[in-house]
């Protein structure tokens, strides 16, 4: 069914109407694919990524909350707004990006309370704060994300958070602090790729 979406007209409004009016598209799988495509295109085409994220947001209004659960849908709305924030950041629309992350936080507060969803949002927002040279805010967000990833045994994600923290250290002129973070990040990522698993 999702393959049929590729043949739809490129008009965002046209696609939104088709997706909204055809109940076959009112599924969790279609929503996830829209968000997946939005994330996959964000580096190559941030405007297309934003368009897909808006389509995903529109789809959340058509999901059966009685079946999927209103809090899970709120998590997905948060994820879509976070993706929007990332796309806008990459276009240097920092004000628009900040507004998107504010919306993401609002929806997440009404969501399931899943800590990993929170950590992923914190990590994405930290990239914006770093671009704004709000290094203390970026560091605080990354430390919160890192703590959650470690608690959940997410070795690769915790390693990536450490790399981002090292970048903040470097930006603030603290390379001596950045280096051990990078070593630890590589250790965690290598261990995860190697299948070691477990905590720190």
Give me the secondary-structure topology:
Elements: H1 12-21, H2 28-41, H3 46-60, H4 65-68, H5 70-90, H6 94-109, H7 115-131, H8 135-151, H9 155-171, H10 175-193
In words, what does this structure look like?
This protein is mainly α and 200 residues long. The protein has ten helices and no strands. Helix 2 runs antiparallel to helix 3 and helix 3 (46-60) packs antiparallel against helix 5 (70-90). The N and C termini lie far apart (43 Å).
Keywords for this entry:
200 residues; mainly alpha; disordered C terminus; 10 helices
Order of helices and strands: HHHHHHHHHH
Structural class by SSE content: mainly alpha
pLDDT under 50 segments (min length 5)?
Answer: 196-200
Kindly provide the radius of gyration, computed on alpha-carbon positions and rounded to a whole number of angstroms.
18 Å
- Output mean pLDDT: 89
Number of helices: 10
In percent, how helical is the residue content? over 70%
Strand content: under 5%
Q: Tell me the major beta sheet.
A: none
Quaternary organization = single chain
Separation, N- and C-terminal Cα atoms: 43 Å
Overall morphology? globular
Q: In total, how many beta strands?
A: 0
